[in-house]
Design a protein that fits this description.
Length: 294
């Protein structure tokens, strides 16, 4: 996160002490309280307590060291007198000495945090080592711009993939519908059962027409079988009444036709049960009456 920073106060002035205890001073407790204004942070200001300027070796300095960053160029080259980092008359800190005269930097100065939101959420808050003095490196800027530019492209790619997926699903759906329609028109039992179990609003016109035609054919087949059985029954009864020499055989044929009728109307278990009962009765010589209804 790109921010603007400035030295707010000595860390010693913000230290909490118990009643009656000796309060620390800038001479006994080094460190600054740095305020940071970050546009990306909705909470407003970020406070970094205990920050210390970074020093680097310098042969031009009397102490052999000088502040590394330009924001602290007018600060003392040593930490032996930490109170000297503030002008007692103007109460300006050395990062803002340019406000009282030329030749020195002015606050605020550029700084940034890496993953500021994550550091704020942790229990210890923002630490001094999290603050980086200077402008945000170009790589982070390019990365942010790249993410912003790639988001629309990612949404476009997602839309294209979803469209392809939907097109594939629709194609498979159309193929399945066409297969069911062809199976129904050809009289395929599995296709007819599948279409019959579907809700009516999901059936196509071809499915509905094929299902209706199948129902009509089934009714016609059942009707023809019923008429044929009645004619056969009437013929057998007439021959038995006339005393035909094959009357007993005709009676057995009548029972077989009756079993066939049960096979069409009842389940397979019921048919087997009726056939076993019929076989036992025939073994005992107790044939059922021929006038029994079909």
């Amino acid at each position: 996160s790109r921010c603007e920073c400035w030295v707010q106060d000595f860390a010693a002035n913000t230290e909490y002490v118990d009643l009656g205890a000796v309060r620390p001073t800038c001479g006994t407790m080094p460190g600054f309280v740095v305020s940071a204004r970050c546009p990306d942070y909705q909470g407003g200001l970020v406070f970094v307590r205990g920050y210390m300027p970074v020093f680097a070796a310098s042969y031009r300095s009397e102490t052999g060291f000088k502040p590394l960053h330009a924001a602290f160029a007018c600060c003392p080259p040593t930490l032996s007198d930490f109170c000297a980092f503030q002008d007692p008359e103007s109460e300006l800190f050395c990062d803002n000495f340019g406000a009282s005269g030329p030749g020195c930097p002015t606050a605020p100065w550029s700084c940034y945090f890496v993953d500021l939101q994550e550091k704020i959420r942790r229990s210890e808050g923002v630490l001094p080592e999290d603050l980086v003095v200077g402008a945000l490196p170009q790589v982070y800027v390019l990365l942010s711009v790249g993410i912003v530019l790639l988001l629309p492209a990612a949404w476009c790619v997602k839309g294209v993939l979803l469209a392809l997926c939907c097109a594939h699903r629709n194609r498979r759906k159309q193929e399945m519908i066409a297969k069911l329609e062809a199976g129904c028109e050809q009289g395929d039992a599995a296709s007819l059962r599948t279409v019959g179990s579907m809700k009516k609003r999901l059936r196509t016109e071809r499915m509905q027409a094929a299902l209706a035609e199948h129902s009509v054919r089934k009714m016609q087949r059942v009707g023809r079988g019923y008429v044929a059985r009645r004619e056969f029954r009437n013929m057998v009864l007439a021959l038995i009444k006339e005393g035909h020499p094959k009357a007993r055989l005709l009676q057995r044929l009548f029972l077989v036709s009756k079993a066939q009728q049960a096979q069409e109307e009842d389940s397979q278990d019921e048919v087997e049960r009726k056939l076993r009962r019929l076989a036992r009765r025939m073994e005992r010589g107790r044939d059922p009456p021929v006038t029994a209804p079909l």
